[in-house]
Amino acid sequence: MSDQGDGTLDLFDDEQAESAIRRVWHDGRWFFSVVDVIGLLTESASPGAYWRKLKQRLREDEGAHETVTKCHELKMTAADGKQRLTDAADEETLLRIIQSVPSPKAEPFKQWLARVGTERLREMEDPALAADRMRREYQRLGYSDTWINERLKNVVIRNELTEEWRERGADERRDFARLTDTLHTGTFDLTTGEHRQIKHIASRQNLRDSMTPMELVLTSLAELTSAELHQARDAQGVSALQRDARDAGAVAGNARRNVEAVTGRPVVSPVNYRQLRQERQHELQPPLLDEAEEES
Predict the structure, then answer these.
(1) Could you tell me the pTM of the whole model?
(2) Number of C-alpha atoms within 13 angstroms, CB side, residue 116?
(3) Using 50, 70 and 90 to split pLDDT, how confident is the model at 51?
(4) Collapsing DSSP states into helix, strand and coil, what is residue 89?
(5) Given the DSSP bridges, would you call strands 29-33 and 2-3 parallel, antiparallel or unpaired?
(6) C-alpha span between 43 and 28 (Å, rounded)
(7) pLDDT at residue 243 tops 50
(8) Which of 31, 125, 144, 246 sits between 20 and 30 A of 252, alpha carbons compared?
(9) Domain that holds residue 131
(10) Are residues 110 and 184 in the same domain?
(11) What is the mean predicted confidence (pLDDT) over 168-180?
(12) Residue 1: predicted pLDDT
């Protein structure tokens, strides 16, 4: 929470909402996970049960019955990393739902929702705006400029690779995670799940946002090499894409081992983004006066 400067406390954190609320672009507009919204607004230990009771109450209210019917079951990434159906609502329907949720976060959530809709539409027209937003957000969190530059380059490379996968016959829900894990295992000798355990982060958190600059560079090398191989070999179908991913992972893995041989330490690090932020904040603090200066 942050001080707003008027004696009140900001009970709503935009960063928290961005990371906690799943959403998907569907039928020309954003749909948000209702359970995630309920969890953020109420901090309930069981937001799914809370939503089921609220949904029943809305159904029994003649004036609100239509609100429930406007919720769609859409696939989103669950805590276990798999795509699962969940109740999702667009901005208009969500605004009606949260009227029935007593929470001091309701009003700032409405403002956040309006910003998301407007910003994302502009970013779809001009991707540079999305990059600027990411840079500002990472700066706010205390990441170094070096880290931010590598992360933004990684986003571009990843998007280009997944576009290659789509065009060459991979299914996003079924194949992308497996191809990613092939690249990751070849690069780090670890699955993405094992890497998360080393970083001590949950499955819902973005692994790349916890990586060190070197880990990001090697991830980008693997993905860029994979895209180049797909194009050079005109790979078609998941089997061919998997072959290229294995070869690309081997290239990045060799680079990692060379770095480790020169530096004498492992590339994979338990340092995560929270530690990076804390270290950056420490750097920004003015040096403390020594005892002699204090006495004078």
Answers:
(1) 0.58
(2) 22
(3) very high
(4) strand
(5) unpaired
(6) 30
(7) yes
(8) 144
(9) 127-284
(10) no
(11) 90
(12) 33
